[in-house]
Design a protein that fits this description.
76% helix, flat, 432 residues, two-stranded antiparallel sheet, 15 helices, mainly alpha
Length: 432
């Protein structure tokens, strides 16, 4: 007979109790903050995946809002719709809806990032890792991403550079400022970089106390693919500023559509970007002038980066520098030997001619000049050899040689210490 106090084993109850016990242990571990390295990396990987999905939604919502804004602006510029029409109100409502969801996901992204920083610092409170700078960044992003053409038709009196006054919709300014959401493209590229998602790289960063953050990833991308990134920045700047310039001019006066066509605007922005003369065409609105100034500044920055990248690409690597220095030293040494041989040969010839007394004044002067030129060539080649040596041996080479010397000195010290220990052992045995 079975014991009435014993209850039969139920698989469902056992699984439920086991799951609850595991969850309790996990909660206790999280509360105590005694996560092992494997658990910490696993939890961080889950948070990184969550942040990547949130940033993906941010990027998608930002691009959807910009596309809807451009579509609505193009319809208005081409006089297909009016600002008080149904289609304009519908598109603006969709833009506002996407903006609201975008702001929510920005707050969620900051929350997940704060949890990641709290996990890295072994801090339980998420608010403790939110510094004043982080709060300022959050507020700034919310302000930038909240600007959009909202439903309605608000106009203001706007004067051109020639003094012509027009009644312009406020959407002209809001649409240009809304393009500031394109900064999320950089954020999207950073969170999808393997330097952020790879656990191995994160472990190396923790061991070396190096922060694998956005700045680190951007610097790594610039070092790895500088030409590709520069081309992408240049093309993106030209395309975005072309549309912004065209929108500024046509919002001011929609009757000048041919003058401010897409190809004419592209030509003007390209010339300004390359810091060239753009001819007789000038922006008629202050908004267009502002876009032109921003384009010129971006052109100067990218031109400077282009020069730096070209200079870096044409510079010799370390091995190439040593090979070039070796070849230059060989050639210079040959020149020095040849000059020394010419000097000796000319000197002996001059001595023989002077002793024989058969040489004329011109021949003696020619041989003396040749000896002087050979000696001058020898001094020049000696200086070239020193310059080649100075250019080849840099700070890195000196540091490497110093490191090797220190290693060898350490090995010698260890050998001397072991030798002294053996001598002391031998002397102690002899004394016994």
């Amino acid at each position: 007979m079975s014991d009435p106090q014993r209850t039969p084993l139920n698989a469902g109850n056992f699984r439920k109790k086991y799951t609850e016990s595991v969850k309790t242990e996990k909660d206790n571990v999280l509360e105590k903050g005694t996560l092992s390295l494997a658990q910490k990396l696993e939890l961080r990987l889950a948070l990184m995946t969550c942040r990547r999905r949130v940033v993906d939604m941010e990027f998608a919502l930002a691009m959807i809002g910009i596309i809807l804004m451009v579509f609505e602006a193009e319809l208005y510029i081409n006089q297909k719709i009016s600002k008080v029409g149904f289609y304009s109100l519908m598109l603006k409502c969709l833009i506002s809806l996407s903006t609201v969801f975008l702001l929510i996901f920005i707050c969620a992204e900051y929350y997940v990032s704060a949890k990641i920083r709290a996990l890295d610092s072994n801090i339980q409170s998420v608010l403790s890792v939110m510094t004043f700078r982080q709060w300022m960044y959050l507020v700034l992003e919310l302000v930038v991403c909240s600007i959009h053409p909202f439903p309605g038709n608000i106009k203001f009196e706007y004067s051109s550079t020639q003094g012509v006054i027009h009644s312009v919709s406020i959407d002209a300014i809001l649409s240009i400022v809304m393009l500031g959401r394109l900064y999320l493209v950089c954020h999207f590229a950073v969170v999808h970089s393997n330097m952020v998602t790879d656990t191995f790289i994160y472990s190396i960063g923790m061991i070396s106390k190096t922060k694998i953050n956005t700045t680190f990833v951007i610097k790594a991308l610039i070092s790895k693919r500088p030409g590709f990134l520069l081309i992408v920045v240049m093309v993106t700047t030209v395309i975005v500023n072309t549309w912004a310039y065209r929108a500024c001019e046509l919002y001011f006066d929609r009757n000048k559509y041919k003058k401010n066509s897409i190809f004419e605007s592209l030509w003007i922005i390209t010339m300004v970007f390359l810091s060239s003369d753009h001819g007789d065409v000038l922006p008629e609105s202050y908004c267009g002038r502002f876009v032109a100034v921003v384009t010129a500044v971006m052109g100067l920055i990218t031109s400077s980066l282009l020069i730096a990248i070209i200079a870096q690409q044409i510079e010799h690597t370390r091995s190439e520098k040593h090979v070039f220095a070796f070849a230059s030293r060989v050639q210079t040494s040959c020149k020095k030997k040849s000059a020394a041989a010419d000097a000796i040969k000319s000197f002996f010839k001059l001595t023989v001619l002077i002793k024989s007394g058969k040489a004329g004044y011109r021949e003696i002067s020619r041989l003396k000049d040749k000896v002087k030129q050979s000696l001058k060539m020898m001094r020049t080649t000696r200086e070239e050899m020193m310059d080649i040596y100075d250019d080849t041996v840099g700070v890195v080479d000196v540091a490497e040689v110093t490191w090797r010397v220190e290693q060898r000195v350490g090995v010698l010290e260890s050998r001397f210490n072991s030798l002294e220990e053996k001598i002391d052992l031998i002397l102690s045995k002899v004394e016994r």
